[in-house]
Design a protein that fits this description.
Shape: elongated
CATH topology of the largest domain: Spore Coat Polysaccharide Biosynthesis Protein SpsA, Chain A
CATH class of the largest domain: Alpha Beta
Length: 339
């Protein structure tokens, strides 16, 4: 599949980006077939601004009567692209932080059949990272670790990066109505992709900051993100290790947690008794407290090793395409036999 034979769409959420949106649109190359600007009830009426000043025939302005957040705007663009028969959907922001000339880099792994979803990573180039504000750098490091834990994509970083591309055959199987509507959507979609066993690839990109103002405040959302990451983590573990499949890792995790909990509780109880009675604990008591903790930690680490090594290998859209081809061949063979 080549770029020329592929219908590529770009989705741009539009909320208070009226200073940069026209410049971003002007930089999008000819490889793109359709551009969806989603006016998320923008108080600056950026949708009208685009319609008045942008003459590009590829641009379609979609409007929300109520603000739905960046995730809600992206899902609206996804649905429009699916309805219009697009093949790959690229999402960029309208604030000028993402270079539209990199679109071909983001869709290349998908065209090559090596990925279902690609996302930007601003942490590859250490020189570029030095330009990133220290608070944002620290916050992204915390969010990245939580994202690895909840999504299962241990080899990706920079989860809040919104420069992404996705194959439409994958979008069709995503529960778009369940994906988070606000800033958590970038990491929430990773969790949803893992439930499909989709292949995700990081694309190196530069960290670019100008006079744009970010609406994402790391200090305000770390607590909220932590709760949602834990929710997705437990869902993913249940889906992947108990509902859809069973392996030795399915035993290692609960057994390890139980042993650590037993060792800690028993050890704490015996320590309190020793303090109260002013008598030292026996060697057997110490062993009975410490050994379960040591063995339990080993089991948990073994589970994490299994989880890290079990990344999806074969792109989901290739699997679905192969299944469709087999179905068509079976139906065609059945019709020929009937004749």
């Amino acid at each position: 599949m080549t770029i020329q034979a592929t219908a590529i769409a770009v989705v741009i959420p539009s909320y208070k980006v009226d200073k940069h949106i026209l410049s971003v649109l002007g930089q999008i190359g000819n490889e793109v077939s359709r551009i969806y600007v989603v006016d998320d009830c923008c108080p600056n009426q950026s949708g009208e601004l685009v319609e008045r000043h942008c003459s590009d025939k590829r641009v379609v302005v979609l409007r929300h009567a109520e603000n739905q957040g960046v995730g809600g705007a992206v899902m609206t663009g996804y649905r429009a692209a699916i309805d219009d028969g697009m093949d790959i959907i690229v999402k960029i922001d309208g604030d000028g932080q993402m270079d539209p000339s990199r679109i071909s880099d983001f869709i290349a792994p998908i065209l090559a059949g090596e990925a279902d979803y690609t996302k930007g990573n601003r942490f590859y180039d250490l020189e570029s990272v030095r330009c990133m504000p220290k608070a944002r750098l620290f916050g992204n490091a915390i969010l990245s670790f939580m994202s690895k834990l909840s999504s299962g994509y241990w080899d990706i970083f920079d989860p809040t990066n919104g420069y992404t591309a996705i194959h439409c055959d994958v979008v069709r199987y995503l529960p778009l109505q369940k994906i988070s509507r606000r800033y958590f959507f970038e990491t929430d979609i990773l969790f949803r992709l893992n439930t499909l066993r989709a292949v995700v690839v990081d694309i190196p990109m530069d960290a670019k900051y100008g006079d744009e103002v970010s609406n994402l405040k790391i200090t305000q959302i770390v607590g909220e993100f932590f709760v949602k990451h834990m929710r997705n983590f437990f869902k993913r573990i249940f889906y992947n290790y108990y509902l859809r499949d069973m392996s030795i890792a399915s035993i290692e995790l609960p057994l390890g947690v139980l042993m650590v909990a037993f060792g800690c509780i028993f050890g704490s109880t015996q320590w309190l008794h020793s303090m109260h009675d002013a008598t030292p604990a026996s060697a057997g008591t110490v062993m009975l407290s410490g050994l379960p903790v040591i063995v339990g930690l080993q089991l948990i680490l073994a589970f994490l090793g299994h989880d890290i090594s079990s990344l999806p290998k074969k792109p989901f859209h290739r699997i679905r395409r192969g299944m469709k081809m087999k179905t068509i061949q079976t139906e065609t063979g059945g019709h020929d036999a009937a004749r």
